Amino acid sequence: MPFAENVQQQMLSRLRRIEGQARGVQRMIEDERDCAEIISQLASIRGAVYSASVFLLKHYAKECSAQAASRPDTEKPLEDLIELMLRSPH
């Protein structure tokens, strides 16, 4: 499914921020920084990934509902959405 330009830009911005955070953690490890600081940064990355996932899931849900309104064969996209929502993060 193609992204609307604003959705694409927001996702790319979020992913670039996450990428920068991951590089920062790499430097922290190389610099032998305190474990508590590293864990704190990893928690920030986890939060940013979760936030990006929720943002994209909301977009996908809106697209699925729009498709459902215009097509009779909507069961598959809606099933896919439900599966994504129920997927374990581990």
Summed up:
This protein has about 90 residues and is mostly helical.
What does this molecule look like?
The protein has three helices and no strands. Helix 1 packs antiparallel against helix 2 and helix 2 runs antiparallel to helix 3. It has one domain: Up-down Bundle (Methane Monooxygenase Hydroxylase, Chain G, domain 1). The mean pLDDT is 86. It is an all-alpha fold.
Distinctive features:
single chain, Methane Monooxygenase Hydroxylase, Chain G, domain 1, 3 helices, elongated
SSE topology sketch:
Blueprint: H1 5-30, H2 35-70, H3 75-86
Arithmetic mean of pLDDT: 86
CATH architecture: Up-down Bundle
How would you name the CATH homologous superfamily? Metal-sensitive repressor, helix protomer
Strand content: under 5%
Order of helices and strands: HHH
**Whole-angstrom Rg:** 17 Å
Total number of helices: 3
Q: Extract low-pLDDT stretches.
A: none
Number of strands: 0
CATH topology label: Methane Monooxygenase Hydroxylase, Chain G, domain 1
The proportion of residues forming helix, as a percent range, comes to over 70%
As for the number of domains, it is 1
**Structural class label:** mainly alpha
